[in-house]
Design goal:
single chain, binds magnesium ion, alpha/beta, six-stranded mixed β-sheet, binds adenosine-5'-diphosphate
Length: about 270
């Protein structure tokens, strides 16, 4: 079998609990508590679970924003746990994140052009400055925004448009893996469907791999090849999407499924 793009084994990430008065460490939260999974190239793995189940901590650990306490994260065969910030730099380019809140994820003081160019400023080898204008136009076009909007500020866009800007920013460094953490959760249902379709199209064209996080199973169903269900920091179920929906094995998954609204524009077959 081909080597997976991402291979996570027995991952543990904790947060200290500190006393109110002296900030002494008096315990810890095991936010990620022994998680293992693979993501094959070009695939989408959905990650679901109630709020507080450890999804964001898992994502933040994979991209190096939180430090793993134990376990292994192999990306393209390279162990990431234990790498220094400098050693992580090229990896941080290959793994991009799209966040939930398009209102706070984009710097309000920068134009879209500046937001998209930031990465090229930081990594000058990515793209020579004379090509930035053209690449900004191309990226906006790719995510379905009018290239004439390049000099607008984030507040001049709708929520869905802002999320497209967030996706364009992720694409600007030509990543291999995109981690979407509740990327469509704040959007209206019809706008969610448009952004999910965009992510689907981008995957088909660019061969991207996604770790797609949502608390809403109906959102994950549309886009995922496999689904991981997380509860209290642990994986309770991991199955191909169709199998998980047709025959959930665990009570926790069944409870999550029971809470799913059936009528969604992209799930019409399940409403029939
Ligand atoms: N920065 C933090 N400091 C301390 N505890 C945290 C921090 N971030 C998250 N947690 C705790 O870790 C657990 C998992 O949180 P999180 O990863 O945000 O879950 P999810 O994304 O599934 O909602 C929760 O108990 C949460 O309270
Ligand atoms: Mg979260």
């Amino acid at each position: 079998m081909a080597e997976p793009l991402l291979r996570v084994r027995d991952l543990v990430t904790t947060y200290p609990i500190r006393s109110a008065l002296l900030r002494r460490k008096i315990g810890e939260v095991r936010a990620v508590d022994g998680v293992s999974f693979d993501i094959a190239r070009g695939q989408t793995v959905g990650l679901v679970g109630e709020s507080g189940s450890g999804k964001s901590t898992l994502a933040r650990t994979v991209i190096g924003l939180e430090q793993a306490e134990a376990g292994s994260i192999e990306f393209q065969g390279t162990e990431l746990v234990g790498l220094s910030a400098r050693q992580m730099r090229p990896v941080r380019r290959d793994i991009q994140m799209v966040f939930q809140d398009p209102y706070t994820a984009l710097n309000p003081r920068l134009t879209v052009r500046q937001i998209l160019s930031e990465a090229w400023r930081i990594h000058p080898d990515l793209l020579p400055a004379q090509d930035w204008d053209e690449e900004v136009r191309r990226l906006l076009d790719v995510v379905g925004l009018d290239p004439q909007y390049a000099d607008r500020y984030p507040h001049q866009f709708s929520g869905g448009q802002r999320q497209r800007v967030g996706i364009a920013r992720a694409l600007a460094v030509r990543p291999k893996l995109i981690v979407c953490d509740e990327a469509v959760s704040a959007l209206d249902v019809s706008v969610q469907a448009q952004v999910l379709n965009l992510l689907d199209d981008l995957q088909a064209e660019l061969g991207l791999t996604y770790l797609f996080i949502a608390h809403d199973l109906s959102v994950v169903r549309h886009i995922s090849d496999e689904v991981i269900v997380m509860n209290r920091g642990q994986v309770v179920e991991h199955a191909p999407t169709d199998q998980l929906f047709a025959d959930p094995q665990h009570e926790y998954t069944q409870t999550l499924l029971a809470a799913v609204p059936v009528v969604r524009p992209w799930n019409q077959e399940s409403a029939a």
